[in-house]
């Protein structure tokens, strides 16, 4: 989801929607300074500062990654003395006075920002901690579209792409999150009959607020090249069919930029090898 925060009502919604990011932690802070060419003087002059803060937190049994982009920043402070850590959050404090937003992120006020406009981007999914220790690869997609992908659609699209797969339904367990619509394991047909193989765990869920859907694709345990290829292909098919946002690690990627982001990741991997 994406939401622009411009008024006091928007700010109240932000704090209510996120619960003030209670108990969360900051994973990334980025400062970007723009400069423009002044034609009169022929020199580059400052044209605004943007601060981006990425936060992981949990609310209503959903694991969330939120990116706050603060534009037209007029004051920013990030101060950590030796042994201190301003990444752990209690409940952030925020106010709107004189047309400016003020955010105090940590209890000590060592991460602080003043800005004129804020944008929230967020991807949330039912908490999956029990399997996280053996997780190898995970991709999450979230959309506001009201037509959800079905297992039949997934199998048909993979078959058309020349990668036929089989589906193993996972039966709902007691205490399962109410947002989960269906889940199962996708296995390349070429791997049927092999011993100790794991496919791609797929889960479709409804949003914890508003309309739309989310989907989690992940490979657990030792990753086979074939399952990795199917995960990548299925991610591409979903992005091509539905508008939305992807989440890889702590990075939120607009669906329209997924292919470019993925290709840049491959280039980085080639450079590092």
Describe this structure in words.
The protein has helices at residues 8-18, 151-160, 225-241, 258-272, and strands spanning 2-5, 25-38, 43-59, 62-71, 75-78, 93-97, 100-104, 111-115, 117-126, 135-143, 165-169, 180-188, 200-205, 213-220, 245-248, 251-254. By secondary structure, it is α+β, with helices and mostly antiparallel strands. It has two domains: 2-124, no CATH class; 128-266. The strands form three sheets. It has a seven-stranded antiparallel beta sheet, covered by helices on one side. Residues 267-273 have low confidence and may be disordered.
Structurally, the number of domains stands at 2
Give the count of helical stretches.
Answer: 4
State the share of residues found in helices, binned by percent.
Answer: 10-25%
Tell me what portion of residues adopts beta-strand conformation.
35-45%
How much is the radius of gyration in Å? Answer: 21 Å
Topology order in helix (H) and strand (E) letters: EHEEEEEEEEEHEEEEHEEH
Sketch the major β-sheet. Answer: 7 strands, antiparallel
Number of strands: 16
CA-CA gap between termini: 35 Å
Structural class: alpha+beta
Strand arrangement across the biggest beta sheet:
11-12-13-14-10-15-16
- Rounded mean pLDDT is 86
- Contiguous runs where pLDDT drops below 50 for at least 5 residues: 267-273
Shape: elongated
List the helices and strands and how they pair.
Elements: E1 2-5, H1 8-18, E2 25-38, E3 43-59, E4 62-71, E5 75-78, E6 93-97, E7 100-104, E8 111-115, E9 117-126, E10 135-143, H2 151-160, E11 165-169, E12 180-188, E13 200-205, E14 213-220, H3 225-241, E15 245-248, E16 251-254, H4 258-272
Antiparallel strand pairs: 1-9, 2-3, 3-4, 4-9, 5-8, 6-7, 7-8, 10-14, 10-15, 11-12, 12-13, 13-14, 15-16
